[in-house]
Amino acid sequence: MLDTYEYAQRLQKDGAFTEQQARLLAQERLALEEHIMTRSDLANLVTKQDLSQALSQLELKLTLRMGAMQIAAIGILVAAMKLLIA
């Protein structure tokens, strides 16, 4: 984290900037640093491959559940038909 006071003091020290200019530059630099990605930010990004793998896993789970529901529905129909025929 940037120490804006110290940074502004260093800018003023050489006489290149006035106090007001140095403060403004320090504040703007701090605002910019908040928007810069760090290595840890990059490591936490989700890639297209990660999303594709997650989607494939969800598709498989959905297919298995739909199959189980169809088997259960067929079982219920068979049982109902046996009751009606008997």
Summarize the helices and strands and which ones pair or pack.
Layout (H helix, E strand, L loop, with lengths): L3 H10 L5 H15 L5 H5 L4 H38 L1
Protein name: DUF1640 domain-containing protein
Keywords: Membrane, Transmembrane, Transmembrane helix
What this model shows, in words?
Helix content is 79%, strand content 0%. It is an all-alpha fold and 86 residues long. The longest helix has 38 residues, at 48-85. It folds into two domains: 1-45; 47-86. This is DUF1640 domain-containing protein. The chain crosses the membrane at residues 67-85. It comes from Litchfieldella anticariensis (strain DSM 16096 / CECT 5854 / CIP 108499 / LMG 22089 / FP35). Keywords: Membrane, Transmembrane, Transmembrane helix.
